[in-house]
Design a protein that fits this description.
The protein is an alpha+beta fold and 209 residues long. The chain is built from seven helices and ten strands. Strands 2, 3, 6, 7, 8 and 9 form a six-stranded mixed beta sheet that branches. A two-stranded parallel sheet has the order 1-10.
Length: 209
């Protein structure tokens, strides 16, 4: 069950959109972060021409975090055994649904399950980072995750301070604030490197590996 709490005022967290030089990428924590890299690679499986996301579900098994599910925004037409959000599953929900289909229990309170999600804004050619006061914006995900997968938390990337971990309740409150203040993506996106520079990095890593 999700609850509501007051959020930060707009002027505390809205940041102007700025470009970051490609040369600075190697100094960023996410440059060599394996989970972030995997999320971005998964985002290329999406068919959207606006925003594209990838997600990785990790569950602590025998005190070791293990990948149990992967997801990206996917059309859910036709018959399927996966749980649905609607005509499409978002990356976060799909990662959880895949994990469940493989036999993992995402309702077990004795096992911590975290869904990591990262993505790209395609029109502006940017990696996506939310501003600090509003780390999550999707009500569809918070409502459906809390309904079907009761023991999951979410984690989103920040530009400079690693992953931002939050409960579903915290994510839902953030998404409520985003929705009911009529905000847009360009209101909440932070300084972000160009996607082109990141793709050059990914291609380089693929060639090396």
């Amino acid at each position: 069950m999700v609850v509501s709490v007051p959020m930060l005022e707009k002027d505390l967290w809205i940041a102007p959109l700025k470009d970051e030089q490609i040369d600075n990428l190697e100094n960023k924590w996410f440059y060599n972060d394996p989970i972030f890299n995997l999320c971005i690679q998964l985002s290329y499986l999406n068919s959207s021409n606006q925003e594209s996301y990838g997600a990785v579900a990790l569950q602590e098994i025998d005190k070791i975090p293990r990948i149990i599910g992967l997801g990206w925004n996917i059309y859910m037409g036709g018959e399927t055994d996966f749980k649905r959000q609607g005509y499409a599953n978002h990356a976060e929900f799909q990662a959880a649904a895949v994990a469940e289909s493989l036999g993992y229990n995402l309702n077990d309170k004795s096992k911590d399950t975290t869904i990591y999600v990262a993505g790209r804004i395609l029109k502006e050619d940017l990696l996506f980072f939310n501003a600090p006061g509003i780390p999550f914006t999707c009500l569809t995900c918070t409502k459906t995750l809390s309904k079907y997968f009761k023991n999951v938390s979410l984690s989103v990337p920040t530009p400079n301070n690693g992953w931002w971990h939050m409960t579903i309740e915290e994510a839902h409150n953030s998404a409520l604030y985003f929705r009911y203040n009529n905000l847009r993506r360009d209101n909440v996106i932070l300084t972000s490197p160009r996607h082109q520079g990141w793709q050059l990095h990914l291609n380089k890593k693929m060639l090396i590996n």
